[in-house]
Amino acid sequence: MTHGLGTVRRMWQLLEPVHAIAYYAPESVERAAALGYPAERRWAGYFAWRAAPLGPVGPALVNAVFYSFSPRKVARHITHAWDTTSPGAVVAARLASVDEALRRLLGERAASPEVREAAALARRAAEAADTAGRPLAAANAALPWPDEPHAVLWHAATVLREHRGDGHITALQTHGLGPLDSLVSHAAAGAAPAEVFASRGWSAEEWDAARARLAGRGLVDADGAATAEGLRVRGEVERLTDELAAAPWAALTPAETARLAELVMPAVRDIVRTGLLPSQSTLGIRMAYGHL
Predict the structure, then answer these.
(1) Which one, out of 51, 67, 147, 236, has a CA that is 20 to 30 A from the CA of 172?
(2) Helix axes 179-188, 204-216, angle to 10 degrees
């Protein structure tokens, strides 16, 4: 069943908060600290949490599949990540923290028939995802499915999110946007203020050099704002990303996809209302109640 690209994008935006709670919930910070990752450094837990399904990989592979982070930041957090504990222990702690966080955030809704139905629909889409050439999606898809519906919903959202992210890298490379160029062009197009992208760990000098490269291609103007050509290229990147993310949704009919959106919306609002998620991110999604 074919879905419009607007629906594909909308489902990503809707499920992203479900996935992202793994990195921002206090339960995640506490469990990461219990394993030995510094609680005061959120990124240490983030890198371990997201990379663990790949196994005991080093900075070079993580840098490749995460794409937009500075190699220095990746090396700082991954070089000794598996000296702290094993990837298997991290995967188990990640799921346990998500389970606890969603039970707390959703309350009685976590065990509701609506969440159970949403989990079943999302799982069908996730299990339909072709992970060939998509390492982060493949690594997460290979993990055992949780038992509880709210955790199933999170795992499905994670597989679908990483499937899309792997495809997004393909789209960026198709249009000649390397890791830092992709961030600079996204900021120039107004996805978020440039300071939001500082979390990726690049220096001001590197940012300026990337801006100069994009200016040489006619993608940004002298002030660093996207030109008409720059907006066109970013639009093509997003369109191709949506196209590459569309296949799993063919497992659901339009009515089932609409039903999933209807079922997930209350849970997403519960999550967003907590204020745990940043209102702006490098993804260009505004985590605001009005947006959702």
Answers:
(1) 51
(2) 80
The span from the CA of 195 to the CA of 212, in Å, is 18
What are the phi and psi torsion angles at 220 (to 5°)?
A: -135, 155
Three-state DSSP state, 220: strand
Closest-CA residue to 66 (of 136, 156, 159, 149)? 136
Percent of the chain with pLDDT over 90: 85
Spatial distance between the Cα atoms of 270 and 240, rounded to a whole number of angstroms: 31
Handedness of CA 22, 26, 32, 37 (dihedral sign): positive
Least trusted range by pLDDT, from 54-63, 152-161, 174-183, 276-285: 276-285
Scan for tokens 């500082």, then name that residue.
198
How far, in Å, are 104, 138, 222, 280, 288 from residue 284 at the CA level? 27, 25, 23, 7, 12
Return the structure tokens found at 95.
């799921």
Query: pLDDT tens-digit profile of 186-216?
Result: 999 988 888 888 889 999 999 999 999 999 9
C-beta separation of 97 from 103 below 8 A = no
Residue type, 165: G
Question: Quick one: the chain helix, strand, coil %, rounded to 5?
Answer: 70, 0, 30
| CA atoms of 249 and 111, how far apart (whole Å) | 25
Which amino acid is present at 43? Answer: W
In angstroms, the CA 237 to CA 34 distance is 40
